Amino acid sequence: MRVLLAGQTYGPRNGPGVFTRNLARGLVASGHEVTVAVPAARLRSSGGDDGGVRICEVRGVTLAPLYPDVVVSVGARQIVKRILRDSRADVVHVQDHYPLSRAFVRAAREESVPIVATNHFVPENITAQTWFGRVAPLRRAFDRFSWKLVKDVLNAAAVATSPTATAAAILTRHGVSAPVRVISCGVDTKRFTPKPAHHDGTVAIYVGRLDRDKDVATLVEAISRCDGVRLVIVGRGREERRLQKSGRVIFKGFVGDEELPQLLRSADFFAIAGRAELQSIATLEAMACGLPVVAANALALPELVSPGVNGELFRPGDAADAARAIARLMDRKECWAAMSRASREIAERHDLSNTVRAYEKLYAEVL
Which uninterrupted H or E stretch holds 91? Predict the structure, then answer.
């Protein structure tokens, strides 16, 4: 089967990029031909290849200085049509509602190529970063506009997918009429494996973007209230400089694929405060490493974390409650071995091989 994946990112910069890369590599390993199309401010003259995945970069414009790490491809209709024709794709699978994906949806419809669309987005991913997100009328207007764009793409697909039941329910509630299938983003449980034994419970770790929608500031404040606990932060983002003013926090910056599993295994538990998580691949990777999780009781995180079973939950944005959740975890160290096993067992249900098979089956259905 020939599959064309299109989206804003490919690789470790964010969750959708990690998902796209993992799926593309998994499909290639299963014998399929995969082309990935992504925007790029600077094109590589020789094109790109990632372990058999053909990478097609489409020239875009950066949104700097507002969003220097975001590149948007506009007016790429002819390039998109050429990539679609050259790939001879049997199915087009888009990852978002942004201009490049929209162009591939239009081209696929013109060529009668089946479309699958995955949603990784809620408007808070953007409004949490911006001044207008703090102005209620503007935020509501942006939400309506964003959901219209999302629905335009998802409703053009034969099937829409979302990684959790929570995420799927959000789509249905906002008027997505296409059939919605729940398929986990998946995690490589062969690469992310448990450590042989727990340490002393003093090291928490967070992995992900350092942007406002991730609310890492709540974790930093919570750790400041917990005696003897340090927080390791892995990632970069707009909030990095502000967060670095805090004590008892170790900043690792961006960490490559090879180092990340070992770094997760060196911690005692994972912490995440994001209020707009539709699944959280980083949490799944930590759980695959056998870490208990302290998480915000928000959106889809409770689908991964059960209090007293593999971690604790706290009220979103409430640093005092997050500190209490950490204290509850610290007070139950005798249960950590069981929590570690529970985290691993949950992660194994989301093994990447299951995700690849689910998408292979879905692609076959829409052909």
Answer: strand 91-94
* 60-103 tens-digit pLDDT: 887 766 666 778 888 889 999 999 999 999 999 999 999 999 99
The β-bridge partners of 4 are: 35, 92
Q: Name the one residue in this structure whose structure tokens are 């002819």.
A: 78
Q: How far is CA 163 from the centre of its chain?
A: 10
**Contact between residue 295 and residue 162 where contact means Cβ atoms under 8 Å apart:** no
- Tally of CB atoms within 10 A around 341: 13
Residue 109 has what DSSP assignment?
H
Question: By CB neighbour count within 10 A (0-12 exposed, 13-18 middle, 19+ buried), where does 46 fall?
Answer: exposed
Q: How far apart (Å, rounded) are the C-alpha atoms in residues 226 and 34?
A: 48
Cβ 319 vs Cβ 263: under 8 Å: no
DSSP state of 334: G
**Structural domains in the chain plus CATH codes:** 2-186+351-366 (3.40.50.2000), 203-349 (3.40.50.2000)
How far, in Å, are 56, 88, 246 from residue 50 at the CA level?
11, 19, 38
